[in-house]
Amino acid sequence: MLERNLPRRIGVTATILMLLGSAGLGVVKGGHLDELTARLSDTRNAWPIPSGFRIIAVDVNGRRQLSQDEVLATGGVNGRSSLLFLDAATVREKLKANPWIADATVLKFYPGQLQIDIVERTAFALWQQGGSCR
User: Is the pLDDT of residue 18 over 80?
Assistant: First the structure.
């Protein structure tokens, strides 16, 4: 009687859902969520790169204290990034989180150019020697 009322392959579906749920719980509880999202991002960026959406040229303007590599690392732009899936707003927010960067503008020019304009904060210090400021 019970077998006639249940849909076909409900046991297989329930088993697969239970295994996927336990794997997801293990990823979250084990602290591997950031690593998994980074790997999925690399996989997502793998197909647009051969299609012509690879970042070929990067122009970083307005930097004095930071090197170009530091700016790109702070923004999360690497050699595996594709211009198609690069979120300019997210890169801008990551750059503005750096204490040296007051403001940033990120522009994507298709098919393969990225332009980053930053405004750095000015360095200042108050030096005292012998009780007097210099």
Answer: yes
